[in-house]
């Protein structure tokens, strides 16, 4: 990493610094002294392996910080070697390290009117951090105030030209950014196509071929020890001659993954054979123009242009057919997304310097090539008071404090390359945003996909960006505008007027959004006025980032602009256990909707049991929409996500990190409609994900025509492929333990069952722990358990394994099974007796000793009473929960139940995602965390782990 510094502020200050007024902190009382602190032990395990992955004892946090928040901060952000005095062990140390660096830089660069103002600012900033009102992005916590380079940015945009030197430099710059834990995006459209000639006369390789090298580099750096995968974005303009190859690249690789998996290769995430698959380390996006989208609407042709001779059309394509291929590829594998070039550049404040060509990996930061952006996010729910009114004054003050700190950071920040450092210092792009919008709307009784919800979100976003730019203009009066402002003053001010005018399209529906919108309009009027007088300190001010790890740090229920993931979640306890809880915003919402305490309690109890509001007692169906979530029985419709993005986009400098999720049954046309409507509604970018799209593929493609010789767009025959779904066992399940001996060899059989009595897991304990036999039995148990949970009938296992013969074999101590051909033979006949009905066992020839004795006496395995009962009520098909027996001494003991919970390493939910899987009866399509083994959940266009805070992207 190249350490680059700014020597001084960009212009001579017009005043002597900002006065700072106190709003949050108390004069004469340090923010730390206003809260109660406690020491905690942080121990993290990979629950799948039992391995301790992190441990630090005696760390200090406020008593109101959750166990999850303190665990993630301790693991991710405390610096210093574990077990040494240099290791940080208190939130105070962490916050002081960052805040003191910011305040000192602010004083050195003339931001504050006096030392007293600097002290007040320090305490205000500290108070907001301690009370979880906002958080800086992760690189700030990683680096600021340490001996490491002071990198504060999470988002980078690179550039690459049509030369080998530039292409190799692209690889190098990306590598250093990945090494530092951040992500980068790049537009590769300047590279000449494979249809054009080199200066030597040979044929060019084309940009897609060079993507292979960059992809391999990212994969190597990831596997070389990074804590998360390398996050990268690759963009190609829709008029590039190689656009079809780019569009189909990842879909073809997904076909390869499936074929290799079916052939027995290890193609799971992190699998050893996965490295043979290309293009898996990047998000791909097509940069489309208004001209292309209009051609799609009209069904006309579109020209692909030369890179060597700009403007020269070297091929014509059917625009609608190309758009269909884009949608079809996204249907297959979620890539490519779309970026709307004309919309992006219409809101560009610095067009005289250069166009916006690309974005960061999560698509929220869009600016000049070779630039960076540091992020910070506000916790919206913190600004709703006990009266359930959004506090405009405190929110405004918080934005002022945060945006000031973000600008100060550019004064001391280091950057991975000199070109990135220079662009960032010249344009000072910032990315203030927020988290917990979904929880805020639910708490206030507003549906995420409702006019009321969208209007409040739009008003808050407008106020946030308006205050940020107003403060930017005030800073310009103190420390000067950004260096590139003079050349871009007119377009910058024009964009400010566009933001101001967009408020006219927001129509408040209730008291909260009326007050917020009124304040926002006043702020934008002030922005236009002050900007014309002072200019602006920052070219950009706001984005909506994923807020994965920092969302947990702030104890947010929801991340970024996302709705709530599900109504029921897991909460970590101080003793290391976890409990299932209904989101705390649900009771708050019910109160705001006018429900009595008694009715609300019954509704919450229903949700706790069913995971959904459907059918809840006393709940008006008109209020169901308030509790709609990203997943579950009432999942928000795809266009609900698009409409929310469209509501807030006019009030953001950048864009939004968000993926529009579609059900597995969605068609190619559904995805094409999302892409088309997103363009019409004014989004800057959109990404989609069809559930399980990386497994199910279209099975055939047919070409049709109206008559002979007519060529039509290939229409995929979308056929749903039904695959088994894993049904996990409930957290607390019915179980039993049977001791046994076969030919003197002893062991224990432990089983777990679903609530309806079906067998769901087995555990075999044989020999000493750690022995080869014990290990083999553990593996065998897991394989059988997973098979049962995926729906393989127990009788199928019994048919295969009963009567299998090998040593030890002989007499047993079980009166129902006197002789066994092997331990496996005994186990599966015992399982048949315990969990199969009489008819099912009879087909397999497996009976109890009592049934065999009755047959010898009467010629029938059942008594007349039993036969009559079987005919009338099929009582012998009762669930094992009704007839559980514990075989400790070899005798059947009806009525006894062993409540010992089954071991946790097979089945059972450990995160909200896994809990939702149990409720839905199908899997949530998300990866497992590489650190702690828990299932991650979506966060923007990335994934985040609830267990340890790891993310799959650049948040």
From TrEMBL:
PANTHER family, per database record: RIBONUCLEOSIDE-DIPHOSPHATE REDUCTASE, VITAMIN B12-DEPENDENT RIBONUCLEOTIDE REDUCTASE
Species the sequence originates in: Acidipropionibacterium jensenii
InterPro entries given in the database record: RdRp_reductase_class-2, RNR_2_N, RNR_lg_C, RNR_NrdJ/NrdZ, TSCPD_dom
Physiological role: Catalyzes the reduction of ribonucleotides to deoxyribonucleotides. May function to provide a pool of deoxyribonucleotide precursors for DNA repair during oxygen limitation and/or for immediate growth after restoration of oxygen.
Keyword Cell cycle in annotation: no
Ranges where the record places region Disordered: 1-20
Domain Ribonucleotide reductase class II vitamin B12-dependent N-terminal: start-end pairs: 41-132
Protein family per UniProt: Belongs to the ribonucleoside diphosphate reductase class-2 family.
Gene of this entry: nrdE
Pfam families xref list: Ribonuc_red_2_N (PF08471), Ribonuc_red_lgC (PF02867), TSCPD (PF12637)
GO biological process: DNA biosynthetic process
Record's protein name: Vitamin B12-dependent ribonucleotide reductase
Start-end of Polar residues biased regions: 1-15
One example GO MF annotation: ribonucleoside-diphosphate reductase activity, thioredoxin disulfide as acceptor
């Amino acid at each position: 990493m190249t350490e680059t510094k700014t020597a001084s502020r960009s212009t001579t200050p017009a005043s002597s610094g900002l006065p700072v007024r106190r709003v949050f902190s108390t004069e004469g009382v340090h923010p730390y002294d206003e809260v109660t602190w406690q020491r905690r032990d942080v121990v993290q395990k990979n629950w799948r392996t039992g391995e301790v992955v992190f441990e630090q004892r005696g760390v200090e946090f406020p008593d109101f910080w959750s166990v999850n928040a303190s665990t993630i901060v301790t693991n991710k952000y405390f610096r210093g070697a574990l077990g040494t005095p240099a290791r940080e062990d208190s939130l105070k140390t962490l916050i002081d390290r960052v805040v003191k660096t910011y305040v000192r830089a602010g004083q050195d660069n003339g931001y504050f009117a006096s030392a007293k103002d600097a002290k007040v600012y320090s305490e205000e900033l500290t108070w907001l951090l301690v009370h979880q009102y906002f958080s800086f992005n992760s690189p700030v916590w990683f680096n600021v105030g340490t001996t490491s380079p002071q990198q504060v940015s999470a988002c980078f945009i690179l550039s690459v030209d049509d030369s080998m030197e530039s292409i190799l430099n692209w690889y190098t710059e990306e590598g250093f950014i990945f090494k530092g834990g951040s992500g980068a995006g790049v537009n590769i459209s300047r590279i000449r196509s494979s249809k054009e000639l080199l200066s030597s006369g040979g044929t060019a390789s084309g940009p897609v071929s060079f993507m292979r090298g960059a992809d391999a580099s990212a994969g190597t750096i990831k596997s070389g020890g990074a804590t998360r995968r390398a996050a990268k974005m690759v963009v190609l303009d829709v008029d590039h001659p190689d656009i079809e190859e780019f569009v189909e690249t990842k879909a073809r690789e997904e076909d390869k993954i499936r074929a290799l998996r079916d052939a027995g290769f290890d193609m799971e995430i992190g699998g050893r054979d996965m490295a043979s698959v290309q293009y898996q380390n990047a998000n791909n996006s097509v940069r489309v123009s208004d001209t292309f989208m209009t051609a799609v609407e009209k069904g006309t042709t579109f020209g692909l242009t030369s890179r060597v001779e700009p403007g020269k059309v070297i091929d014509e394509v059917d625009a609608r057919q190309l758009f269909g291929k884009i949608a079809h590829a996204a249907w297959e594998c979620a890539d490519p997304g779309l970026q709307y070039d004309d919309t992006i550049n219409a809101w560009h404040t610095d067009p005289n310097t250069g166009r916006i060509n690309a974005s960061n990996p999560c698509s929220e930061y869009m600016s000049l090539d070779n630039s960076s952006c540091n992020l910070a996010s506000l916790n919206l729910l913190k600004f709703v008071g006990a009266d359930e009114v959004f506090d405009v004054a405190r929110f405004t003050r918080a934005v002022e404090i945060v945006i000031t700190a973000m600008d100060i950071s550019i004064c001391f920040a280091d950057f991975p390359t000199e070109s990135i450092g220079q662009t960032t210092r010249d344009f000072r792009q910032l990315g203030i945003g927020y988290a917990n919008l979904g929880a805020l709307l639910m708490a206030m009784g507003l549906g995420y996909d409702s006019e009321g919800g969208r209007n409040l979100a739009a008003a808050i976003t407008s106020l946030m960006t308006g205050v940020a730019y107003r403060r930017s203009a005030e800073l310009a009066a103190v420390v000067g505008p950004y260096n590139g402002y003079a050349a871009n003053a007119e377009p910058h001010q024009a964009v400010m007027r566009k933001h101001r005018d967009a408020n006219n399209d927001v129509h408040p529906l209730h008291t909260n959004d009326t007050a917020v919108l009124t304040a926002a309009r006043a702020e934008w009027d002030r922005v236009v006025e002050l900007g014309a007088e002072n200019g602006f300190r920052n070219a950009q001010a706001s984005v909506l980032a994923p807020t994965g790890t920092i969302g947990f740090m702030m104890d947010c229920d929801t991340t970024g602009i996302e709705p709530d993931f599900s109504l029921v979640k897991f909460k970590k306890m101080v003793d290391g256990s976890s409990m299932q809880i209904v989101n705390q915003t649900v009771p708050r919402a019910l109160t705001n909707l006018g429900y009595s305490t008694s009715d609300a309690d019954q509704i919450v109890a229903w949700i706790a049991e069913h995971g959904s509001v459907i059918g809840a007692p006393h709940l008006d169906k008109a209020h169901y929409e308030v509790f709609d979530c990203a997943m579950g029985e009432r999942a928000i419709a795809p266009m609900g996500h698009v409409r929310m993005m469209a509501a807030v986009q006019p009030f953001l400098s950048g864009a939004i990190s968000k993926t529009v999720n579609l059900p597995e049954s969605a068609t190619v046309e559904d995805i094409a409609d999302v892409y088309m409507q997103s363009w019409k509604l004014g989004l800057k970018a959109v990404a989609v994900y069809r559930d399980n799209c990386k497994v199910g593929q279209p099975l055939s493609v047919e070409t049709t025509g109206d008559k002979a010789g007519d060529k039509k767009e290939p229409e995929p025959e979308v056929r749903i492929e039904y695959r088994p779904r894993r049904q996990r066992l409930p957290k607390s399940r019915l179980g039993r333990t049977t001791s046994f001996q076969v030919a003197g060899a002893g062991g224990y059989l432990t089983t777990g069952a679903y609530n309806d009595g079906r067998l769901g897991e087995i555990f075999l304990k044989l020999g000493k722990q750690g022995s080869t036999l014990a290990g083999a039995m553990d593996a065998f148990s897991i394989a059988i358990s997973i098979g049962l949970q995926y729906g393989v009938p127990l009788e199928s296992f019994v048919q295969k394994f009963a009567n299998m013969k090998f040593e030890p074999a002989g007499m047993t101590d079980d009166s129902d099974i006197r002789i066994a051909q092997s331990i496996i033979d005994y186990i599966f006949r015992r399982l048949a007796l315990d969990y199969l009905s009489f008819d099912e066992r009879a087909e397999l020839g497996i009976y109890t000793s009592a049934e065999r004795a009755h047959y010898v006496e009467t010629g029938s395995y059942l008594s007349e009473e039993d036969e009559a009962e079987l005919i009338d009520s099929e009582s012998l098909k009762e669930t094992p929960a009704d007839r559980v027996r514990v075989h400790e001494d070899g005798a059947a003991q009806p009525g006894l139940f062993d409540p010992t919970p089954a071991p946790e390493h097979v089945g059972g939910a450990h995160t909200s995602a896994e809990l939702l899987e149990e409720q839905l009866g199908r899997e949530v399509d998300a990866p497992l965390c590489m650190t702690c083994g828990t299932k991650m959940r979506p966060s923007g266009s990335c994934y985040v782990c609830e267990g340890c805070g790891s993310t799959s992207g650049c948040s």
